[in-house]
Amino acid sequence: MFAQSFSDSLFLLGSYNQLLKKYRREYAIVVLGIVTQVAFFILYPLVFKYIFDKVIPYKDFTLLAEVVIEVIVLMVICAGGAYLQTKYMAKVGGRVLAELRLGMVKKLGSLPSGFYASVDTIDLLSRFSSDMDRLENSMTRALPSMVETFLIMLGCLITIATIDWHLAIAAAILLPIGFLGNAVMGPKEDQLNSQSRQLKNMMLSSVEDFINSWLLIRAFNDKRHIKGRFDSTNSSYTERSSDYSYYINISPVFSEYGVSVSLAIIVVLGAIFAIKGQLTVGAFIGCFALLRKVADGSAKTAKSYSGFINAIRPFRRIQKLLSEEAMSQEKHDAVELPPLSHEIKFEEVSFGYVPAKLILDKINLSIKAGTSVALVGSSGSGKSTTTKLAMRILEPQSGSITFDGVRLTDSTIDSLRRQCSAVLQESHLFRGTIAENIRFGKHNASMEEVIEAAKKAQIHELVQQLPEGYETIVDERGSSLSGGQRQRIAIARAFIQNPSILFLDEPTSMLDPITESSVNEAFMELSKGRTVIMVTHRLASARHFDKIIVIDQGKVAEEGSHEELMALGGKYRALWDKQHGFSISPEGYIKVTPERLRSIPIFSSLDQTALEGLAREFSTETFEPGVTVIQEGAKGDKFYIAVRGSLQVLKKGPDGVDKPIVVLSDGDHFGEIALLKSVPRTASLKTLAHTSCLSLSHERFSRLVESQPALLKALEESMAARK
Fold first, then answer.
1. Dihedral pair phi/psi, residue 419, rounded to 5°
2. Which side of the chain, N or C, has fewer Cβ within a 10 Å radius?
C-alpha cells in the first residue's frame, strides 16, 4: 500500500515536471514565494523567544522598537512572496491545463471512427470537467501547499533542535502520526471516488435518456420504466457517494486528533524541562510556537497530499485519451491533389470498424469525373461507408483509393477538402446562428451567398419567419428545428461551397415529398458539370443518374444505368419493384395498387377483387423523425407498409434497454399478425427519418372480411404457409 502510494507520487511529480518544463522562469518565482513563506514561519516564532529572553528582562524599549520594525519588514517581504507564489502558480497551472485540454480536443479530431462507436460520451466529457478539476487542484493548490508545509515543518524541527534537541527528537517521532489518517483511509477513499464517478456518469446518462425521451414518455404515459432505471442508478450513486464523503471527512479528523495528542505530550515535556531550568521561558514559548506550526503542518501536509495523490486516476485517464492511436496522418511529403479530371477509383478496398467484421470486402468501382453516380442497396450494405472512404473521413484497412491515379493516402487532406462538399446523413448543427451553420464550409461567404444557398435548399422563407432571422441561435441538436429543417440547413451548407465533387448521403431522407422534389431539382441543377456521388435507398431519386451502383454485403453486385439494371432483372429490379406501386398526391395522401399488394406474401393468394377492396381500406399516416410508431408490449391493432422513409426495429434486452435489430425502408411491411388478432407487439418501431406509411387497422380489416369471407380464409392459409 505504502509502496504503491510512493510510486504514484513519483509518477505525478515526474509528470508535472515535464508539463512545467517550458515555464521554468515562472515556476522559479513560485518556488521563491514558497521560500519566503518558509522563512517567515521559522523566523516569526524566534521573535517571541528574543522578546522574552532579551527585551523584557532588560526592559529595553529601543531594542523592542528595532524588533517591531524587523517584524514589519519581514511581513512585507513575505506577503510579497505569497502574492507572487499565488499569482504565478495560478497562471502557470491555467496554461498547463489549457494545453492539456487543447491536446485532448486535437486528439479527438484525429481519432478513428471506431473510437467514437465505443466511447461513453459522458465518461469522455468528465475528462474535461471533473478529471481536470482534480488535476488542477493537485497541481496548482495541493502540490505547492504540500511542498511549503513540508519545508516549514523541516525548518521548524531544525530550529527546535538548535534550542533543545530533546524536544526536536520527540516532535520528529510523534508528529508524523498526523499522516496516519490519510495513509489508512487514502486508498479506500480513492477507490470509492472512482466508483462514485462511474455511478454518477450512469446516473447522468439516465437523466439524459429522460430528457431525450420526454415526448415518448408522455405519448405512452410510461414514466415508471424510465424513472425506475433512474432510481436504481441514483440509489447506487447515493450509497457510494455517501461512503466517499465519510472517508474524505473522517481522514482529517484522525489526523487532527493525532496531532493534538502528540502536541500535548511534547508541551508537557517542554514544561518539565522549563520547570527544571533546562529551558528558558522564551525558549519554551518559541519552541511552543514552532511546535504549533509543525503540528499544523503535519495535518495540512496530510490533507494536501490527499488532494495531490487523488489526481493519479484522472491524470492516467487523460493520458490514456492522449495516447489513443490516431488515424494515419498525411505524409510529410504528401502532394497537392489536382482538380479531378478523370476518375475516382476503388481497388480491392476493405474496411470494418471492427477488423474481424468487414463492412466492405475488397470492393472495386470507378466513378468518372463530371458524372452523377448513385450508390444503392439495403441498409448496412456499405453505401455510406464508401462515400466516407472517398472523402477520407475513414481510412481503408487494405486496398487503395485514387483520384486520377493519385492515392488519397499520398495527398494532402486540405487539397482533397477544397474540391469536396457533402450533405451527410446526420444533419448535425453546431451551437451558433443559422447563418454561421450555413457558412460552416465557407467562413468568408457574404450574406448574399448565404441567402442564395438557403433559397436553393428551400429554407429561406422559414428563416425569414423567425424573430432573429439568420441570426437565430440553434443548439448542437437543433432542437428548435424539425429534422427536415436541420437537413435543409445542411444542404444549404453544401450549396454555398460550390464544390467540384459533391457527396450526398441520404440528403432528402428527412424531407416531406413536396420539399424533397424541390430540393432534388436544386441538386440536379447543382450537379451540372460536377462529380456527384449520392447514397440513397430511394431509387426514384437515382433514376436519372448517369450510373447506379448496387452494393450488397460489402461488394458491388450490379452497376449500370436505370434502364440497364431494370433489364438485367437482378437485385436492383427487385428493390425497384418493392418501392413502387404507390402514388402520392400533392397533399401527401398515398394509394397502393392491387398488384403491389399481391407482392406481399400474406396477400399473394388473394384474387383481384379482394386486392382492390383491400387497397381502398388503407389509410395514410406520416411520422416525424424520432417518433415511436409501435411500442413493444402494446396492443397490436394495425398492419403497416412503409412507403417512404426509414424505421428502426428495437427489442428490449435483459437490462431493459432497447437494442437495435434491423432498419426498415421504402416498401417494407410489418405487423401483419395484427390483422388476425390483437396481441402484444414483440418489438418497438421508431422512425429514423420523415416517414410516410399506409396502415390497415384490425377493425377496418374485420369489416372488409364481413363482406368478403374468403379474404380471411386466404389470409390465414397464407400466414400458416409462412410458419
1. -90, -20
2. C
Q: Which of 606, 115, 605, 136 is nearest to 327 (CA)?
A: 115
Helix (H) or strand (E) holding 564: helix 562-568
Cell 451558433 locates to 432
In this structure, what C-alpha cell is assigned to residue 333? 511529403
Q: Give Cα separations from 595 to 387, 576, 611, 713 (angstroms).
A: 36, 14, 8, 20
Q: Residue 331 and residue 344: Cα distance in Å, rounded? A: 21
Find the helix or strand (DSSP H, E) in which 83 lies. helix 61-110
pLDDT for 174 equals 61
CA–CA gap between residue 313 and residue 179 (Å, rounded): 21
Supply 81's cell numbers.
512572496
- Report the DSSP beta bridge partners of residue 366: 345
Total number of residues shown for the chain? 723
C-alpha cell at 640: 403497416
Tracing cell 395522401 back to the chain, one arrives at 589
> Residue 81 belongs to what H/E stretch?
helix 61-110
Q: Give residue 416's identity as a one-letter amino acid code.
A: L
Residue 18: burial class (beta carbons within 10 Å; 0-12, 13-18, 19+): exposed
Distance CA 672, CA 78 (A): 84
Give the C-alpha separation, 384 to 379, whole Å: 10
**DSSP annotation of 682:** S
- Checking if the pLDDT of 45 tops 60, the result is yes
β-strand partners of 585:
none
Reported for 701-709, long-range contacts at CB under 8 A and 24+ positions apart, including other chains, are 701/617, 701/639, 701/675, 704/613, 704/614, 704/617, 707/613, 708/609, 708/610, 708/613
Please give the pLDDT value at position 357.
82
What would the pLDDT profile of 60-87 be if each residue is shown by its tens digit?
A: 777 777 777 877 877 788 788 778 888 8
Lookup: cell for 158:
531544525
pLDDT tens sequence across 639-675: 899 998 888 998 887 777 788 888 888 889 888 777 7
Residue 221's region, left for phi above 0, alpha for psi from -120 to 50, else beta, is left
CA nearest 233: which of 210, 211, 203, 197?
A: 203
**Range 286-306 average pLDDT:** 71
Q: Report pLDDT digits (tens) over 201-215.
A: 667 666 666 665 555
> What is the spatial distance between Cα 722 and Cα 214, in angstroms, rounded to a whole number?
39
CA dist 618 and 681 (Å) reads 20
Whole-angstrom CA distances from 261 to 148, 161, 255, 267, 518 are 24, 21, 10, 10, 84
> So what's the pLDDT on residue 186?
57
Instruction: Give the cell for residue 379.
Output: 441498409
494-504 burial by CB neighbour count: b if 16+ within 10 A, else e? Answer: bbbbebbbbbb
Q: State how far the Cα of 549 lies from the Cα of 374, in Å rounded to an integer.
A: 6
pTM: 0.64
Stretch 258-282: mean pLDDT, rounded?
Answer: 69
* Nearest alpha carbon to residue 672 among 600, 572, 590, 615: 600
